[in-house]
Amino acid sequence: MVNKTILIEELKKHFGFDTFKGNQEAIMTSLLEGNDTFVLMPTGGGKSLCYQLPALLMEGTAIVISPLIALMKNQVDAMRHYSEDDSIAHFLNSSLNKAAIDIVKSDIIAGKTKLLYVAPESLTKEENIEFLKTVSISFYAVDEAHCISEWGHDFRPEYRRIRPIINEIGARPVIALTATATPKVQHDIQKNLGMQNASVFKSSFNRHNLYYEVRQKTDNIDKDIIKFIKAHEGKSGIIYCLSRKKVEELAEMLQVNEIKALAYHAGMDSATRSDNQDAFLLEKVDVIVATIAFGMGIDKPDVRFVIHYDMPKSLEGYYQETGRAGRDGGEGQCITFYAYKDLQKMEKFMQGKPLAEQEIGKQLLAETASYAESSVCRRKSLLHYFGEEYDQDNCGNCDNCLNPKKKVEAKDDLCAVIETITALKEKFKAEHVIDVMLGKESADVKSYRHDELEVFGCAQSENPRQLNAIIRQATLAGYIVRDIENFGLLKVTRKGKDFLKKPTSFKIVEDNDFDENEEEVSLKGGASCAADTELYSILKDLRKKIAKELELPPYVIFQDPSLEAMATSYPITMDELQNITGVGAGKAKRYGEEFLKVIKAHVEENEIIRPEDLRVRSVANKSKLKISIIQAIDRKIALDELANSKCLEFGELLDEVEAIVYSGTKINIDYFLDEIMDEDHQEDIFEYFKESESDDIEEAINELGRDYTEEEIRLVRIKFISELGN
After folding, report:
1. 517 lies in a domain?
2. How far is C-alpha 400 from the chain's CA centre?
3. Are 460 and 394 in contact (CB under 8 A)?
4. Which pLDDT belongs to residue 643?
5. Considering its fold, how many domains does the chain have in total?
6. Nearest to residue 421, comparing CAs of 471, 370, 464?
7. Does any domain span residue 495?
8. pLDDT tens readout for residues 8-43
């Protein structure tokens, strides 16, 4: 039996703590007594200590299997910091050379090393297996154990080989630890590691101090993020993006807006990555923009905000990443930007993977979409996902609870949902159930002959969003369950069957309306897009006046979106004007002065405040593609050959060239036009644009007739804008 007093003395001696946190003491006792132990403990709960202290107290070396090299280095550094002897902890991975590996092995043989961190790939190497067979091992710790499960957010096939290798090296107690695991993932971990009889310790997933919010992702996302960071000046934060390219772009955008930020992703060289991580830990910078490669094992207790530029692929990923905020129990704001099309894009990326993997991926994305769109308490939704019930109706610390929506009665609709699930013999997902209820004759509905069921079309008057909300909230209330084992098939619980026999009031809140067409509306809405309609009207009149003087159509001067942007952000210097969409240096010099004069006068007359944090400086366009296109045109390379050399469709090349001339750069494509079109044709199209009020291609085709192709019209329009507008 482990002596509690001695354990606390050792805790104080080695780590300087007076008391254990949560389940730590019980977990350590279980491991010290030789039991397999499963630990489910949210980020910030003190997981690492659960195996670090027992390793120091037990005979032999503990083998810690960990997925990331950066994580191992941090943990080894942390252990050495607590000890006088650097040989107390080592790691063994692909970053070490032969001489370094020899030092590690000799320290282990000498009995100096209590913790050896190993990557799963290194563990599978024959030479390492043979070496470890000769070592006295105290126990095995499998960190980030969710990597074992295909349903986990970071599945790694090599994690599946851990148990057979442990058996080969020599069986000792196993402790598996994870910060995020649904009941399904927990079952997978225990089954795969052969520890079904393990002592299980689950801590609550509820982080009271974290504030959760999901915002609509719009074209203004960069401005929103800059405004948020400037309102929390000097505070530490992490911004997660899905792509490395976006990480680089956003970090640069923050830097030009005077925010101390650095990038971090797996594609960077390890020295830069390590330097950037250290700069964040040492508070030389306030913000790290990163892919999910950042944060594993980063023990910075005072991260005050975590922003998701893109919605993560799974709720496990979301929970773990948001969990890096407020680990000291202080403020932690978790802001996520959501657009359904991002999830659709992720679904497309899955194509080509095995079908089972695609199904799992789709299910995880569906859960993420449900969480984002739901108007129910975010905390309640998250905890329910991880198998924990939260019985309060309002947590007071999420966007949905701080701005609650009115509840509507949905008793009859819930009855219809339960009846439909039952009629479908509990063998279908929410999507199919809703199709049947709406009376949709989809291919699946018809192939199963569900259009012949009595329940077919029983909710034709409802919209899919409402039915989705009912299913989601009925699941939270325990009337329905999603069978995770079978990709989310809906099943009716005993409580649901009782409800159908004797229905009572069932009130729901409608889902948040993330309207996918919102961006399109804002782009096509004319003057309504400008924040200042009066200024927009003044700028249109000025454009008309200049166009008349120069005998040019107004769109050649500036296009409508550029005027809308001017009437929204009020540029009053040449630099600010050049940052407006569609205004390059050329156009700014040619026409800018008059526009700036008008805007400045309007701002002064109306005492308009131009807050600096709303003026987002954009990174100068350093597009290598655009520069190489301009250089190629200067060298008179045929445009069709240029498109081929850049692996672009011809239409895509024209998109790029149009963007170049519309932003004010002058180019000459006469050499190509003269090669493919006769002079009369060119003149007809050129004259059309000279007289037309619009540069719309459809209108031009209708007016000019079918003798002219779309590509010819676009090419002459490029010549026209370049010659007369730039």
Report:
1. no
2. 20
3. no
4. 86
5. 5
6. 471
7. yes
8. 898 888 888 888 988 999 999 999 999 999 999 887
**Among candidate residues 684, 351, 238, 315, the one with its CA nearest the CA of residue 484:** 315
Same domain assignment for residues 70 and 11 = yes
pLDDT value of position 159: 85
Q: Is residue 566 part of a domain?
A: yes
Residues 20 and 86 in one domain: yes
CA distance 47 to 39: 8
Same domain, 598 and 630: no
Q: In whole angstroms, give the CA distance from residue 232 to residue 118.
A: 39
| Domain interval for residue 472 | 407-509
Residues 71, 162, 106, 136, Cα dihedral to 10°: 120
Whether the pTM exceeds 0.85: the reply is no
Instruction: Give the closest residue to 141 by CA, choosing from 168, 165, 173, 179.
Output: 173
**Residue 552's pLDDT is what?**
80
Task: Please give the full DSSP string across 354-391, using - where no structure is assigned.
Answer: -HHHHHHHHHHHHHHHHHHH--S-HHHHHHHHTT----
Distances (CA, A) of 235 to 222, 238, 284, 398: 18, 10, 12, 20
Smallest CA-to-CA distance from 305 within 405, 218, 364, 230 is with 230
What is the distance between the alpha carbons of residues 416 and 651, in angstroms, rounded to a whole number? 50
CATH at residue 660: 1.10.10.1390
pLDDT digits (tens, 9 = 90+) for 181-190: 888 888 889 9
Asked whether residue 77 is assigned to any structural domain, the reply reads yes
Percentages of the chain per state (helix, strand, coil), in multiples of 5: 55, 10, 35
User: What type of residue sits at position 693?
Assistant: E
Query: Both 397 and 416 in a single domain?
Result: no
d(CA 98, CA 497): 66
Q: What is the pLDDT of residue 622?
A: 46
Residues 166 and 25 in one domain: yes
